[in-house]
Specification:
It is a single chain. This protein has 325 residues and is of the alpha/beta class. It has one domain: Alpha-Beta Barrel (TIM Barrel). The protein is 50% helix and 10% strand. A 5-stranded parallel beta sheet has the order 1-9-8-7-6. The chain has a two-stranded parallel sheet with strand order 2-3. Strands 4-5 form a two-stranded parallel ribbon. α8 links the parallel β6 and β7. The longest helix has 25 residues. The radius of gyration is 20 Å and the shape is globular.
């Protein structure tokens, strides 16, 4: 399942989905941005729950503002933001975990991990209505991440989120570290707990992450890529439409219902990109159902290599396969 990050200027009107289009089951909302607006906070706490505010009856997860806390002082504590998310009707809510970038030393990563674990324990005791996401941290240290998931399993979390991984899979599609972490997390947590990888939203990477045990993704990539003029496809994002002009790819979204000769403007490109992500997830689910995901991975690699010969996607996936046996 893919959860687009709710941004009113980008996602307004798109939560309704398309009658004959790909599946849009849910979204994710930054609860910190709701909480810091005093009047809106009161409205949500007293008069209107989160689903009503969004006019959306699907699955709604919330983020605590942890990423914003990494870049600035929030003047916010874990208990308050967890209670707020639970009170306004979030289906899956998040603790105020501590982001751990690759530059953190092992000592720093472990200290943040232990602090995050304490916040998760506190949040589990507070949560009454929704489900709390147990967030894995540990930075660039696999052993810390492994221990993190083991503790979350022992705490009985019903939803696992993998945090602070975006910097690792944002490097020319090098999937080695992220796929290794995801596969290990799935092995530790077991087959039945949803595994959510925070921040993953490039269609060409999603099937490989699913093959390693990830079941939920979220991202604002559909809009960020559009702002940069990137046209998403299941095989990689294009800055020019050469493959479309050559007849190598065709999109069925409402934006692409005519021959494409140039990159659409930002608003239309945002719609196309969201459609592409959701359609890719639908295709992955179909492949899982009929047992042909491995063949789909090979097709993605074949096209991706032809279009992006300098990408690390193929070589990194082969390395992952070699380790997994």
């Amino acid at each position: 399942m893919f959860l687009p990050v709710y941004q009113p200027q980008r996602l307004a009107g798109l939560l309704d989905g398309w009658p004959d289009g790909p599946t849009l089951d849910g979204c994710i909302v930054n609860a910190y941005f709701l909480y810091k607006q005093r009047e809106l906070r009161r409205q949500l706490e007293r008069d209107q729950n989160l689903h009503d505010y969004l006019s959306f009856g699907g699955f709604v997860a919330t983020d605590s503002g942890a990423f914003q806390g990494f870049t600035r002082q929030l003047y916010l504590n874990n208990a308050d933001i967890v209670r707020f998310q639970d009170q306004i009707g979030s289906d899956v809510l998040a603790p105020l975990d501590l982001i751990t970038p690759p530059s953190d030393s092992r000592a720093t990563a472990e200290a943040k991990l232990r602090a995050t674990e304490k916040r998760i324990v506190q949040a589990l005791a507070i949560t009454r209505r929704g489900i709390l996401a147990g967030v894995q941290q540990g930075g660039r240290f696999p052993a810390l991440r492994h221990d993190s998931v083991g503790l979350l399993r022992d705490l009985g979390v019903r939803y696992l989120a993998l945090g602070s991984l975006v910097p690792f899979f944002n490097r020319n599609h090098d999937m080695r570290f992220v796929c290794t972490v995801a596969a290990d997390a799935r092995a530790v947590i077991g087959p039945d707990v949803p595994v959510h990888l925070y921040g993953a939203g490039d269609p060409c990477e999603l099937p490989f992450l699913v093959a390693c045990g990830v079941s939920v993704f979220d991202s604002a990539s559909y809009g960020h890529f559009a702002q940069g003029g990137w046209y998403m496809t299941p095989y990689g994002a294009l800055s020019d439409l050469g493959p479309l002009k050559a007849g190598e790819y065709r999109c069925d979204c409402p934006v692409c219902d005519r021959p494409m000769t140039e990159i659409p403007e930002v608003g239309a490109l945002t719609v196309h990109n969201l459609w592409t992500i959701l359609a890719t997830v639908d295709e992955i689910n179909r492949r899982l159902d009929d047992g042909t995901l491995a063949g789909y991975l090979e097709r993605v690699l074949e096209v991706h290599e032809a279009w992006f010969p300098d990408s690390a996607l193929s070589s990194s996936w082969r390395a992952v396969e070699a380790v997994r046996g």
